[in-house]
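FAQ: What does a ligand-bound record look like?

Like this one, built around zinc ion:
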Amino acid sequence: MGRKNLRSDEPRPLNFYAATGGSRVETKQGVSYTLRRTMEGSSVYKCPGCNREIPSGEASWTVIKNDHILGEQAAIDERRHWHDSCWKAFR
Ligand SMILES: [Zn+2]
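The answer part, i.e. the structure of the complex:
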């Protein structure tokens, strides 16, 4: 009780979405991303790979940058949704 020196650099699992359905980590251009399958049915997202919309319900990847300079919440706020084929083509 009363401990003040809480550490912010505690190790945390890299795949923090693993408990919610599986995820994987990929590195492109030296940047590490966490990918999670999206199956949300309520919103339409635009894929940055082809600039076309991903119809709601269509399987896609939610891509979150790891080690975001502004922190994890910023990375989550900037998440993008990709078609599977577009993500594979992205270099
Ligand atoms: Zn696409």
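Follow-up question: can I read anything off the structure? Yes, for example: The CA atoms of residues 40 and 55 lie 10 Å apart.
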